Amino acid sequence: MKVEQIYTGCLAQGAYYIESKGEAVIIDPLRETEPYIEKLESEGVKLKYIFETHFHADFVSGHLDLAKKTGATIVYGPMAETSYDIYSAKDGEELQVGDVTFKVLHTPGHTMESSVFLLKDAEGKDYAMFSGDTLFLGDVGRPDLAIKQGAVTKEDLAGYLFDSLREKVMPLADDVIVYPAHGAGSACGKNLSKETWGYLGEQKKTNYALRADMTKEEFVKEVTAGLAPPPQYFAKNAMMNKAGYGSFDDILERGAVALSPEKFEEIVETREALMLDTRTPAEFAEAHIPNSINIGIKGSFAPWVGALITDIEQPIVIIAEKGMAEEVVTRLARVGYDNTLGYLKDGIDAWKKSGKEVDQIESITPAEFADRWNSGKVDELIDARKPTEFLAHHVEGATNFPLDYINKNMSSLSKDKTYYIHCAGGYRSMIMSSILQARGIRNIVDVQQGFKGIEENGHIALTDYKCPTSMSQEELDELVASVS
User: Fold this and answer.
1) Cα distance between residue 30 and residue 271, in whole Å
2) Cβ partners under 8 Å of residue 357, min gap 6
């Protein structure tokens, strides 16, 4: 038996490859299938099943393309209704793969079809559980993503999750390995660990949601407290996973086309394409195409694309570092942004050589910022971090304006003011700066290295507030507003 975790850091997502006696299973695969196909061919094994723990909301799974290419059967647990062929396993059903067995445990709560796949070794001993979003290390899946208006509430789902954990998961032995679908950085939970696997016994001791003396009422209250609104693309990705999607190979062929500056500009004008610049914040600040948006590929790229580009069918053209265009198209497709129409050949240098206009954003060091702040030259300081980050520690006098909510809060900003913007390390602040500039707010100064740089530089008054862990999102928003 071979068990391999295939972890993708930018999505904080874990897919899994399990092999036994010439047969294999892949669990929760990513959109691109080639790495899995190469793996199967190199090992000389046949893919028998593709297990899906639930309808994923934070990425588009590769199950459809993978099934078409390998002939493998797509397996969901009970209550999964799709527009394509699947095998809907019963609760408690066992599926054989080589010498090992997978037992399907239906665990509704995160979503109604959520299921855990329990791996038993050749001797029939429980070895590992592939827990999807039912159980994470340090947390459990949020119960507000599968709400049905007038039918199922987040409190209902939390109650189902309580029962699923107590009846199906917690009775398992302490030495069972937990392989979750996500780790820290995912928006599918509130308190996920940086570790990507662990033992169930450890979770019984340390995971707040698995406390043995916890009542259902306490569980529902704690699991639903402080849930920020889910990113807007979550529901769209879940629907794609349920209803189907176009071939990734076709998307890559269309999206990874080199465009001259003239053709690039033509597509922007005729197709109303969004210009997505995926270079580093420093490179973008120095020179970029006017009205382009910076979301760097070397950061949490896909989640921020999904959170900020509200139309999942938006035509997109790409500005990328040399050799990175296919990677950008792939990462966009992972979260359902399939309408990429090409990339600027030879990048910003080609744009400059063609004589076309470029723009800049002023970007200063933490030391420069400290000098201006202390001399009273800063009109308004915007902290682009999340409310909880802001409350934990921030510059005294700063205003919290989370990047997550920029589309909703744009109207509160003035084109007549100069805004200094920082985040935690410099990634989010440049995203925000680029969006503001593209929308006509020209007086922007980006603070490099973010709050980390400001804090390390010193010479500026900082403040902090200990945020209660059980606050609702509404209470948190009110508190941030009062502190700002």
Assistant:
1) 29
2) 289, 290
Residues 6+ apart with CB under 8 A from 222: 208, 209, 470
* Total number of domains in the chain: 3
CA gap 30, 65 in Å, rounded: 10
- How confident is the model over 218-233, as a mean pLDDT? 90
Can you give the pLDDT at residue 408? 86
What mean pLDDT value characterizes the chain?
93
Same domain flag for 308 and 226: no
Residue 392 pLDDT more than 90?
no
CA–CA distances in Å: residue 250 to residues 238, 343, 368, 381: 21, 16, 48, 45
List the CATH number of the domain containing 372. 3.40.250.10
| Residue 222 shares a structural domain with residue 254 | no
- Let me know whether 384 and 445 are in one domain: yes
Q: What is the pLDDT of residue 325?
A: 97
Query: H-helix or E-strand containing 237?
Result: helix 233-243
**Is residue 61 classed as helix, strand or coil in its secondary structure?**
coil
Domain boundary among 193, 214, 236: 236
Q: Which residues, in sequence order, are CB contacts of 406 under 8 Å at separation 6+?
A: 308, 432, 435
Q: Which parts of 320-376 are beta strand (E)?
A: 340-344, 362-364
User: Are 340 and 376 within one domain?
Assistant: no
Residue 301 pLDDT more than 90? yes
Question: How many other C-beta atoms lie within 10 A of the C-beta of residue 262?
Answer: 10
pTM reported for the whole predicted model: 0.91
Domain of 31, in residue numbers: 2-236
Residue ending a domain, among 176, 207, 236, is 236
Distance separating alpha carbons of residues 401 and 394, to the nearest angstrom = 12
399 and 468 co-located in one domain: yes
pLDDT at 127: 98
Amino acid at the residue 199: Y
